[in-house]
Design a protein that fits this description.
Elements lengths: L1 E8 L5 H13 L5 E3 L13 H7 L7 H13 L2 E10 L2 E10 L2 E7 L7 H4 L9 E3 L4 E6 L6 H9 L4 E5 L7 H12 L2 E5 L1 E2 L1 E4 L2 E4 L5 E3 L5 E4 L6 E6 L2 H5 L2 E3 L2 E2 L12
Parallel strand pairs: 1-2, 1-10, 2-3, 7-8, 8-9
Antiparallel strand pairs: 1-15, 3-4, 4-5, 6-7, 9-13, 11-12, 13-14, 16-17
Helix pairs in contact: 1-3, 5-6
The structure holds acetamide (ACM).
Length: 262
């Protein structure tokens, strides 16, 4: 199974341009599963909830999800990508997974970062895992990484690989993913964006350095902090399924939930 991140620049508010550009980047390298950044179609720095709502689209019936799902059908591949989702009155910072047979599932960001709390509703669907045949995948979005429960929950449900769409602004995540993957024995594809969003007085810079991390904490590939990039890695799901660290230690069966006070 060949998995890829798409590291790209996103032009704030230029949805059609960003989607077309993402499709070009998807076409540039062959893979079985591609992960794109968080909010890849709109950019990140919304001024308020009215603005995020004005850009939000239904999943799976909005134009962005449809365009990428059509690509997945044509290329017989899987795609996970982030966008603002409109569902009834609610606006979520979401990602979706589509494959050769069409749309599969949506994830709504549970741990909102900073002013996202003003622009989005908190995700209302528990972390879940999708069996796509060769592997089981789970989704999380950006800041979810800092809460170990996010990946633990996905790993305990059997995820072999985490699709991690991101718009990272702090310098910690890429190194932290080494521990997140090691403690759960899973692969993760962290797809970050590059560049800045500048909105009048406000601006935010994104850190790039998208990364694919292996189940023993190996950095299988890491990108630059400033260039668009698509990198592909061949993964072996059996390596993620082996939770045995040595003959006497198993990452899952050695847990002692009865001794943890949460
Ligand atoms: C983030 O969660 N986009 C920092």
């Amino acid at each position: 199974m060949r998995v890829a991140f798409v590291q790209m620049y996103c032009d704030f508010g230029q949805v059609e341009r960003n989607v077309l550009h993402a499709l070009e980047l998807l076409q540039s390298k062959d893979a079985d599963l591609y992960v794109l950044p968080e909010l890849f179609n709109t950019g990140y720095l919304f001024k308020d909830r009215d603005e995020s709502a004005s850009f939000a689209e239904p999943i799976p019936d909005g134009p962005t999800c449809k365009a990428l799902t059509n690509f997945a059908k044509q290329k017989q591949c899987y795609i996970s990508a982030g966008l603002p989702e409109l569902s009834g009155e609610n606006v979520y910072n979401s990602s979706f997974l589509s494959g050769p047979d069409g749309f599969i599932s949506v994830y709504r960001k549970i741990h909102l970062f900073n002013k996202e709390k003003i622009c989005f509703d908190q995700g209302d669907i528990p972390f879940s895992v999708q069996d796509i045949g060769e592997i089981k995948v789970g989704m999380m979005i950006c800041f979810d990484w800092i809460f170990p429960e996010s990946m633990r929950s996905l790993a305990l449900q059997g995820a072999d690989l985490i699709c991690h769409s991101a718009n990272l602004v702090m310098p910690y995540c890429q190194n932290a993913m080494v521990t997140r993957c090691l403690e759960n024995s899973v692969y993760a594809v962290t797809a970050n964006r590059i560049g800045s969003d500048v909105r009048g007085e406000l601006s935010v810079d994104f850190t790039g350095t998208s990364q694919i991390t292996g189940p023993r904490g190996e950095i299988l590939v890491r990108s630059s902090d400033s260039r668009e990039d698509v990198q592909v890695v061949e993964i072996d799901p059996e390596k993620a399924r082996n939770k045995q660290l040595n003959p006497l230690n198993n990452l899952f069966t050695d847990r002692h939930p009865d001794m943890y006070t949460l």
